[in-house]
Amino acid sequence: MNRGLLILILILVYLGPYIFVYGRTATWTFPRIDDRDNKAFNEIEPHISPVVNLTKVYAVADGSEANYSLNTGLDNRKFLDWIGFPLVLDVSNYTLKASGVYQGKVIFHCDHLEADFPKPGPSQPWYIYQSLVDKYDNTTLNVPCYGDASLIKDNIPKALLLHWTMSGKLIGDRNDRIRTWTDNRIVEIADVRK
Amino acid sequence: MSGNNPLRYIYDKDGGGWFGYRGLFAVIFASAQFGLFAYWVTYTGVTLSAGMFYLTLIPFVFGLLFTGFLPGKSGITPKTFLIFAVWGVLAYALYDWVRVPMNLMVGVPFWDHWFDWGASTLGSQGTTIFTYGNLTAGLIAHILRGWGFAMAYFLLVRRVTAFSAFTFAFFMTIFYWVVFPIFVLTDALPPWIWWFTAWASHMGFAAGLWLAPKIFASLYKKKERVEAVVTTSPISSKNYEKKEQGGKPVVTTYLRSWKTTLYAILALQGFGLAIGFILFGFVVGSQPPSTYPVFGYGKPPPIVIEGFSSYYWAIPSVIAGFVFSYLARRSRTLLPCNNCGHTNASEAVYCSHCGSKLPSEV
């Protein structure tokens, strides 16, 4: 065989797989990652419990204060990455601002920052990892809220209007997006004080 | 002492044995894998940059210094390294070529770990892992490892043969089959297509090891250079694997027919795949099946075939291994011609190449 042709073939043999990888990365890997990231961002749903727990009432210098607990968070964090591998979407700087209003008065308000949501670590056996992915699919936390206890001294309202806003930075494989949700809903107050 | 004494593979007084310079340099050139191994077994606790600095770069530097101590009679020279370095690139190229159709046909994303390796080397996190920079860094580490293993093979063998190339590559396959599911794919259960791809690509690697000297033979201008470097032992010295005849060294040829080689390789595949089936059964059986379609275009390949434990598949593989071992043993041997070195069928009396009378026994 002609030596020049052989050298050319060898160069193509050497470079071929790597040209393929870069080409597939541009045309398959990255677009697929972007698609799956965006799909995961869009499928995230806010979670607000329909019940707010009254946990404590205590005296302060100029009156009394009530503590509440609102269960909130994000649902549908689980998604499949570009190779079909199950991941939990990273969530950072999650904030919740809410106020419970009854007959025009603010019964309680919440203002919470959660730096990072939990997620499976980098290396677990598969049977543990799978259960953690399912566990963190819907992640909720009990956010503390505070209010003037004198407003509920005579009567704890059964239902009130909750104005809420939550936001969080969602982090995928190659993309991130800050999503914000705002809504109102009727919630109940459950007195769980012992 | 005959140059064919197998003990000389282990140790010889010229320093060329596995417990001599050949083994030392094989370990040094395989050290690209050691860096990755530290990254793997610590579950990424040791970054790849640290692993490759301490366990790859430093051994390579010492290797460079050690070349100054090489005795000429060991058969290893800087020129030998250069030849092996050129040969060594082909094996990994073929290794990756075998994986290309696996991506196109069943979606095996064989470069996914290159991003992780690159990120661990360059310190990337979060959304900066999937970048061309990390892909390139991971790719270079990947090539370095394959090239290093090929170098180790060429240093360890006295002569490049198909059988030794496939044997070496099968050891690599088994290493990969064991280490990857235990230390790397800890958070996934590799489906059968992963095991198959690992085996097939290493067989491509073996083909590259075997073909490289033959392909590069045609690139040498001088015929004697071809004989000196390619048709004889990769590492040769004046009293090593050659016979003196009238003051002119004549290269001895390998006494193995293509049938023997084929049967021996098939026997190796049988025994090796039996190990693979047992490992597959152990890994798959030790964890519950995945509910997620890891690898592929959305549909998971079947991890197990209902009713057929992979342990059962090991039985016919072992039987095939014994059958081909038997066939390899009873296949005919070849005789070398003392005049021209050409190989001939054992029943031949005269050399088919130069007409000289052949020796009556080997």
Topology summary:
The complex is a heterodimer of chains A (194) and B (362).
Chain A lengths: L2 H41 L1 E16 L2 E13 L2 E3 L5 E3 L1 E13 L2 E12 L9 H10 L3 E10 L10 E13 L4 E16 L3
Parallel strand pairs in A: 1-9
Antiparallel strand pairs in A: 1-2, 2-7, 3-4, 5-6, 5-8, 6-7, 8-9
Chain B lengths: L6 H4 L10 H9 L1 H11 L6 H19 L11 H29 L5 H11 L9 H25 L5 H23 L7 H26 L5 H9 L10 E4 L2 E4 L6 H29 L23 H21 L3 E3 L6 E3 L17
Antiparallel strand pairs in B: 1-2, 3-4
Helix pairs in contact in B: 2-7, 3-4, 5-7, 5-9, 6-7, 8-9, 8-11, 9-10, 11-12
Task: Give the CATH topology of chain A.
Answer: Immunoglobulin-like
Shape of chain A: elongated
Q: Helix tally of chain B?
A: 12
Q: What fraction of residues of chain B sit in β-strands? A: under 5%
Taking strands numbered 1, 2, ... along the chain, how are they ordered across the largest sheet of chain A?
1-2-7-6-5-8-9
Quaternary state of the chains: heterodimer
Highest CATH level, the class of chain A: Mainly Beta
Alpha-beta classification of chain B:
mainly alpha
Give the helices and strands of chain B as they follow along the chain.
HHHHHHHHHHEEHHEE
CATH architecture of chain A: Sandwich
The chain-level mean pLDDT of chain A equals: 92
